[in-house]
């Protein structure tokens, strides 16, 4: 297990480092096998301790963030939330019979995300620039699994390959807390 612990605006302490690593790693070992990449960020903002955890286990991604007045309580909260998310995810996967297992080919695609900046007040509307580019791999999954993955990552949308249709889809969270699906087709 590859564990990285970062301290931000917080004094580095071996006791806190060891507590965070053992508390969170202990919960992970119940559900996830190697190789695991775990990044834990411990920070202090005003009077609140913030613990952020990013987990990557063979492409399975989870992001959890919690804050509390006590750093140890924040670590406990994050580890409990992480365990609940893992348990919920793996119970759904375990209960679900994957009918499309034969069709679930390893068809990962790379997606490039571009963020456009808004023009300043005096600039013309047509002058937009790419200010950030992200590349990430999209994976084949069904719609239910995509919703779970999006919830685990605390994101508003997720791009994936639908195993039922073999097309690129985007699932997104609507303002009414339901989900929308966009299916890409060629013209």
Concise account of the structure shown:
This protein is of the alpha+beta class.
Describe the structure.
The protein is 28% helix and 39% strand. It has 187 residues and is α+β, with helices and mostly antiparallel strands. The protein has 2 domains: 2-95, Ribosome hibernation promotion factor-like (Double Stranded RNA Binding Domain, 2-Layer Sandwich), CATH 3.30.160.100; 109-183, Sigma 54 modulation/S30EA ribosomal protein, C-terminal domain (SHC Adaptor Protein, 2-Layer Sandwich), CATH 3.30.505.50. A hairpin with a 2-residue loop joins strand 3 (48-57) and strand 4 (60-68).
Which range does the strand content fall in? 35-45%
- What does the overall shape look like? globular
Cα-based radius of gyration, to the nearest Å = 20 Å
Please, how many domains?
A: 2
Mean pLDDT: 79
Stated plainly, the CATH topology of the largest domain is called Double Stranded RNA Binding Domain
Low-confidence stretches: 102-109, 113-119
Major sheet size, sense and barrel closure? 4 strands, mixed
Structure class: alpha+beta
In CATH's first tier, which class of the largest domain applies?
Answer: Alpha Beta
CATH superfamily name of the largest domain? Ribosome hibernation promotion factor-like
Could you give the count of β-strands?
10
Put simply, the count of helices is 3
Write down the secondary-structure element order.
EHEEEHEEEHEEE
Q: What is the terminal separation in angstroms?
A: 45 Å
CATH architecture of the largest domain: 2-Layer Sandwich
Strand order of the largest sheet: 1-2-3-4
- Portion in helices: 25-40%
């Amino acid at each position: 297990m590859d564990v990285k612990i970062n301290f931000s605006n917080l004094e580095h302490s071996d006791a806190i480092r060891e507590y965070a690593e053992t508390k969170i790693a202990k919960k992970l070992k119940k559900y996830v096998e190697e190789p695991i990449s775990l990044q834990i960020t411990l920070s202090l903002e005003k009077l609140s301790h913030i613990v952020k955890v990013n987990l990557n286990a063979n492409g399975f991604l989870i992001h959890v963030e919690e804050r509390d007045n006590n750093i140890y309580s924040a670590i406990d909260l994050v580890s409990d939330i992480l365990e609940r998310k893992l348990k919920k995810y793996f119970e759904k996967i375990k209960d679900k019979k994957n009918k499309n297992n034969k069709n679930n080919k390893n068809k990962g695609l790379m997606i490039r995300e571009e963020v456009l900046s808004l023009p300043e007040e005096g600039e013309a509307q047509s002058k937009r620039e790419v200010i950030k580019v992200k590349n990430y791999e999209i994976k084949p999954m069904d719609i239910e699994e995509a919703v779970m993955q999006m919830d685990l990552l605390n994101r508003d949308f997720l791009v994936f390959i639908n195993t039922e249709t073999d097309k690129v889809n985007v699932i997104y969270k609507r303002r009414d807390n339901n989900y929308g699906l966009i299916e890409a087709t060629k013209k």
